[in-house]
Design goal:
Elements (H helix, E strand, L loop, with lengths): L5 E6 L2 E6 L10 H16 L5 E6 L14 H7 L3 H17 L8 E5 L2 E3 L1 H7 L3 E5 L3 E3 L13 H9 L1 H10 L2 E3 H7 L4 E3 L4 H13 L3 H15 L3 H16 L2 H12 L9
Parallel strand pairs: 2-3, 3-4, 4-6, 5-7, 6-9
Antiparallel strand pairs: 1-2, 7-8
Length: 266
């Protein structure tokens, strides 16, 4: 029997959701999509849960959309074309973005790589703790596509417009230590301490009064302003447009072949 794509454990008032495709860097596949959506709904329905910790099993937190079994496969199932590509993008990202809508506090423990949509998943959590040697990257332009997973909504709110623009325009990697200095994560900790510290924080939060926690989170959501889901809709349209261009094919090929892309503007 194959391992489940997601593991959900509840201990007292704390739930821990682990992405469990370590052989694929926890990349966002159709299998992971369905399992993640189910786990989030289970957490939503469990009134005893007061905080959720999100992490990845294996070497990485999440390496983003699975370029073999994610958007391309979904788009093919939907009949192909730009309209199908847009629907596939939303179908892939929306279940992961649904974690934003939980009314309990969420904490991401980020280790290894958090790339593209994987970075977006971490950003959709309320708090991020990060291993000092982690690698975070909004690599979308390096693939020849527009950002997705509401990353273009989250980053300016966390970093300000200039720092967000630099990360999105260059697609460069930042370490966990730099991510903490930028304000992308709350703090960076030694890799061997990450889970211990994240669980300790999550347990402390889960000890809080449940209604006060929910109402406080609601106030923080109002303070953030705007709606990441509407941004994700606009991003899906832009991604579908870019995805139909030759540059997207070159970007994906270069990424898979671990070389620099050669974009033509076509």
């Amino acid at each position: 029997m194959s391992e489940p794509a997601v593991v959900l454990e509840v201990n007292g008032h704390l739930a821990e959701l682990s992405l469990n495709r370590p052989d694929r860097g926890n990349a966002m596949s159709r299998e992971l999509l369905k399992a993640f959506a189910g786990a989030v709904e289970s957490v939503r329905a469990d009134a005893s849960v007061r905080a959720l910790l999100v992490r990845g099993n294996g070497k990485h937190f999440c390496t983003g959309a699975d370029l073999r079994d994610g958007v391309p496969a979904l788009a093919a199932e939907l009949g192909g074309g730009q309209s199908a590509l847009r629907r596939a993008i939303r179908a892939l990202y929306e279940p992961f973005l649904s974690i934003w809508d939980l009314d309990i506090p969420t904490i991401a423990a980020v280790h290894g790589a958090a790339i593209g949509g994987g970075l977006g998943l971490a950003l959709a959590c309320d708090i991020r703790l990060c291993a000092s040697d982690a690698r975070l990257q909004a690599n979308f332009v390096r693939l020849g596509i527009h950002p997705g997973m509401a990353v273009s909504w989250f980053l300016p709110r966390l970093l300000g417009p200039q720092a967000a623009a630099e990360l999105l325009f260059t697609g460069r990697k930042v370490s966990g230590t730099e991510a903490a200095a930028l304000g992308l994560v709350l703090r960076a900790v030694p890799p061997e301490s990450l889970l211990e510290e994240a669980r300790a924080m999550a347990r402390t939060i889960a000890e809080g009064a449940p209604e006060a926690l929910r109402l406080t989170k609601s106030s923080l959501r109002r303070a953030a302003g705007g709606d990441p889901h509407s941004f994700a809709d606009a991003e899906a349209l832009a991604q579908a447009h870019c995805g139909g261009m030759a540059d997207a094919g070159e970007g994906v090929a270069a990424w898979m072949e671990k070389r620099s892309p050669h974009f033509s503007g076509a």
